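Much of our argument rests on the idea that a fold can be written as discrete symbols. Part of our work consisted of pairing the sequence of a single chain with a tokenised description of its backbone. The amino acid sequence and the backbone structure tokens for this protein are reproduced below.
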Amino acid sequence: MDEVTVVPAKWRVFIDKQTPGAYKALVAAAEAARTAAAEAGLDRVLVELVNLRVSQINGCAFCLDVHTRAALRAGETTQRLGVLAAWRDTEVFTARERAALELAEATTSPADAALQESAYAVAREVLTEDELSAAIWVAITINSFNRVSIMSKHPVRRPASH
């Protein structure tokens, strides 16, 4: 087995800070995706479910921390957050949420053509074209933020009150 050289966290470059213009453009794209979602009728809870599911797949601890808090602020329940990784095996998500989660997974794993086709077919049955497009844009932007945080090794810290 090949040895992996681990770069110490203190040597990591926070690329969002190092190249702020690119990061600012990414933030603008995410804001545009959230606006499109709201205008299409996708509520903030659904947007945060997409953000969380993509972050689960990508293993982005920083984004999971940020978007779990955002989902709770938006009114999401701890039960649904707790079962999100196994959403297909539950009855707690609506048809629209399930379609958006399918699209999020397909967007996160673009090499899986069968998953893409299946997700798209489900979404076309449940979502309008505006909702479908907005859900994909939300997934695209959170995938990008996941990569920024993973490559930068953005830390997740314990809240000050603990």
